[in-house]
Amino acid sequence: MSIANFDEIIRRSMEIRKKYRELELLHHGSEWTVEEDALAYLTDAGLVGRNVMSQQQRWPKAGSEAELEHKLGENMWWLIVLAERSGIDIREAVDRFLTKTEAALK
């Protein structure tokens, strides 16, 4: 994936978050806090675990392939949203992580 494509993914992710913000204001009168976003992400991260277990026939649930794909994408979305809302450039964060990890494994 090129940087330009990742920039487009970030832009689209934040547009979706903006629409969720509108729904939050409509239904609850306030926007979710960053902490609430983090808790929602953690819930979805747990569901990734369950869907992987199901896909690998280690958890009794059928039809998890589509759910797993969806939840993996949703988790990426949450991480982008959390980074943006925390003032962290996700591009730089991932690049730094990869560089540091690659160096540690040489």
Give a short synopsis of this structure:
The chain is built from four helices and no strands.
Verbal overview:
With 106 residues, the protein is an all-alpha fold. The protein has a single domain (3-104), classed as Helix Hairpins. It has four helices and no strands. Helix 1 packs across helix 3 (64-85) and helix 2 runs antiparallel to helix 3. The model has no long low-confidence stretch (mean pLDDT 93).
What is the rounded Rg? 16 Å
Please bin the fraction of helical residues.
over 70%
User: What is the mean predicted local confidence, pLDDT?
Assistant: 93
Unreliable sequence segments: none
Q: What's the count of strands?
A: 0
Number of domains: 1
- Per CATH, the class reads Mainly Alpha
| Cα shape | globular
Instruction: Label the structural class.
Output: mainly alpha
Give me the strand/helix succession.
HHHH
Distance from first to last alpha carbon: 24 Å
Number of helices: 4
- Largest β-sheet summary: none
The proportion of residues in beta strands is: under 5%
Topology-level CATH name? Helix Hairpins
Q: What is the CATH architecture assignment? A: Orthogonal Bundle
